[in-house]
Amino acid sequence: MEDSQAVTTTDTCIIGAGPQGLAAALQLELVAPSMDVTVIDHSDQWLTAWKTQFARADITTLRSPIVHHPSPDPYALTDFVEQHGFERSGLPYDPPTAESFSAFCSEIIKKAELASPIAAIPETIQSDHTGIELQTSAGVIRSRHLIIATNPHHRNIPQWTWNLVGRQAGLLEHSLDVNLAETPDLEGQKIAIVGGGLTAAHLARSAALKGAEVKLIARNPLRIRDFDTEPGWLGPKYLTKYFAESDVERRIQVAREARGGGSIPEWMHNTLLDLTSSHAMEILDSAEVTSADALSPGGCILQLNNNEQIYSDQVWLATGTQSNIESMRCLKQILADVPVIDGLPLVDHSLRLGPHPVYVMGRVAAFALGPAAGNLWGARHAARRITTAITGIELSSDGYYRQSSGPNNTKP
Ligand SMILES: Cc1cc2nc3c(=O)[nH]c(=O)nc-3n(C[C@H](O)[C@H](O)[C@H](O)COP(=O)(O)OP(=O)(O)OC[C@H]3O[C@@H](n4cnc5c(N)ncnc54)[C@H](O)[C@@H]3O)c2cc1C
Question: How far is the CA of 34 from the centre of ligand 1 (A)?
Answer without folding.
Answer: 27
